[in-house]
Amino acid sequence: MFTFEFLDAHHGDCFLVHWGAPHDRVMLVDGGPGGVYRATLRDRLRQLRGADGGGGPPHLDVVCLSHIDEDHVGGLDRLFRDMRQAQQDGDELPYTVGTLWFNAVEELVDRRAPGLSASVRPLLEHAASDTAFGASYQQGRTLRNATTALGLAGNAPFGGPLTEGAETVLDDLDVTVVAPDEKALAELEERWLEAKQRGDPGVISAGYTDGSVPNLSSIVLLLGHEGRTALLTGDARGDRVLSGLSALGLLDDSGPLHVDLLKLPHHGSDRNVEAGFFEQVRADHYVISADGLRHHHPSENTLRWLVESRAADDAYVVHLTNHIAFAEEELTRLREGRAFDIDVRAPAEQALLIMEGDPP
Ligand SMILES: [Zn+2]
Questions:
Q1: Per-residue DSSP letters for 98-123?
Q2: Are the C-beta atoms of 328 and 233 separated by less than 8 Å?
Q3: What domains does the chain contain, in order, with CATH numbers?
Q4: Residue 6: its H or E element
Q5: Quick check: 70 pLDDT over 80?
Q6: What is the rounded distance in angstroms from the CA atom of residue 244 to the CA atom of residue 281?
Q7: From ligand 1's centre to the CA of 55, what distance in Å?
Q8: What is the DSSP letter of 40?
Q9: pLDDT digits (tens, 9 = 90+) for 225-247
């Protein structure tokens, strides 16, 4: 079994990866914005089995936070708060968690420049309430503190931040980290140095048009199980995903990389990808996690680039986690004379189930 379950994460990401036999192993990737925990995620997690398929509290083998933007971390923050509350009250924990994968930005900065983050931390703490990045940074720290108090194994078995080229096998699930890459880490270091020199944390988030700090640090994973693969891109930039795949020897001149499932970067925004991205990465299942309400995601440009990268008779599915009128209209228009399918989660359905028990 290698099944993906995309919950309604509103404008964010929140999904479960199920793999393995005889009992289901489960990875939770991101928690959507805060409200998703009570609206959807909590009830779904309560249905999971205990560790090793037995009784006891629902068990998550891995929780992976791609990056610290509110539309990814908010729901996980609520989840770990629930666990902390139970711990403090002396109650049984509502869940057990094998390991948390999460790159704290300061750990990434320190990987290249040991000690640099400590000299900028006071500036960032001071700025926490005035900038979006300051708030995200603070949320990352809160999450780290909660999980430390819970005694959760951070980034096991990687032993540090998840960066390009790190690999592990987890009960027959092959995990390869595609991003962040060295170039992203170098850029983070440069921003932190500049903030330190100017004594101004604002330079960390200001004046850059090529991606926010959280997006630069976004974890991109390539998963493999039973001959099938999935590329999970968080909110990373498409060019960073491609350079990571190239560095890992997964992209060359012989043709595009084929994966069974591709979660599009950054909710299908056209600011993260170009037409060439879809020429180089092809999938049977393209998943867009968005609601089209807070942001115009997915962009019509992205949909057109995706569809135009494929032959008219190619069979594949474009999945939307929510009904989005403008996106469905564009896909319906693009579908004329083409063979692909469109799959939209019905409002009454708890989740989009993808690759559910179907043979390759
Ligand atoms: Zn996002």
A1: EEEEE--HHHHHHHHSTTHHHHHHHH
A2: no
A3: 2-354 (3.60.15.10)
A4: strand 2-7
A5: yes
A6: 12
A7: 34
A8: I
A9: 999 999 999 999 899 999 999 99
